[in-house]
Amino acid sequence: MGERRDRRFRGGRPPDLRARGRPGSGRSRPPGVVLLVGGAGVAVLGVALIVLVLRMLLAQAVRRDIEAARMQAELDEVI
User: Fold this and answer.
1) What is the pLDDT of residues 15-45, one digit of tens each?
2) Half-sphere exposure of 75 (CA within 13 A, CB side)
3) Helix, strand or coil for residue 49?
4) In a domain, 2, yes or no
5) Is residue 39 part of a domain?
6) Which sign does the torsion angle of CA 13, 16, 17, 23 carry?
7) Domain of 68?
8) 58 with 64: CB under 8 angstroms?
């Protein structure tokens, strides 16, 4: 096994084992690009969360408005 390892690295440098882009591509991704893509993903998730909360609040407001109209009609009957 030692001979096999020696033959593999005899002609040049050992392979670079750091994580880089796609395996085998030999290119690294600039940190700025990674941050931009990650930031865009976080922004999309943030907007989706805001939309979800606003839709829930709108549904609650509609329910309260319907309940208020029903109670007003009931009060008008009593008076």
Assistant:
1) 555 555 555 565 788 889 999 999 999 999 9
2) 6
3) helix
4) no
5) no
6) negative
7) 49-79
8) no
Six-digit token string for 53:
């909360």
Q: Given the structure tokens 């993903």, which residue do they identify?
A: 41
- Predicted TM-score of the model (pTM): 0.56
Residue 59 vs residues 45, 46, 48, 55, 67: alpha-carbon distances, Å: 21, 20, 17, 6, 12
In contact, 70 and 63? CB cutoff 8 Å: no
| 17 contacts 25 by C-beta, under 8 angstroms | no
Task: Identify whether 72 is part of a domain.
Answer: yes
Q: Measured between alpha carbons, how far is residue 12 from residues 1, 28, 46 in Å?
A: 19, 21, 49
The answer to whether residue 29 sits within a structural domain is no
Q: How many domains does the chain have?
A: 1
CA 25/CA 30 separation, integer angstroms:
14
